[in-house]
């Protein structure tokens, strides 16, 4: 079970569909593994839950 994990802020449903489709196609083309074998996990982290350089992203 090959898997792809993508961490990002919020995405729309349409953006998620595009991410899953394009990442799967690319990974399959590069590895030769059938698209049906791939799992794609999208982890959404709101800006208020992420800090960079000692500051919350929601405060930047």
From TrEMBL:
InterPro entries assigned to the protein according to its UniProt record, in alphabetical order: 4-OT-like_dom, Tautomerase/MIF_sf
Domain of life per record: Archaea
Keyword tags: Isomerase
Domain 4-oxalocrotonate tautomerase-like positions: 2-59
A GO MF term: isomerase activity
Record's keyword annotation contains Isomerase: yes
Record has Aminoacyl-tRNA synthetase as a keyword: no
Coiled coil: none
Signal peptide start and end residues: none
Name of the protein in question: 4-oxalocrotonate tautomerase
Organism listed in the record: Methanobrevibacter millerae
Lineage: Archaea, Methanobacteriati, Methanobacteriota, Methanomada group, Methanobacteria
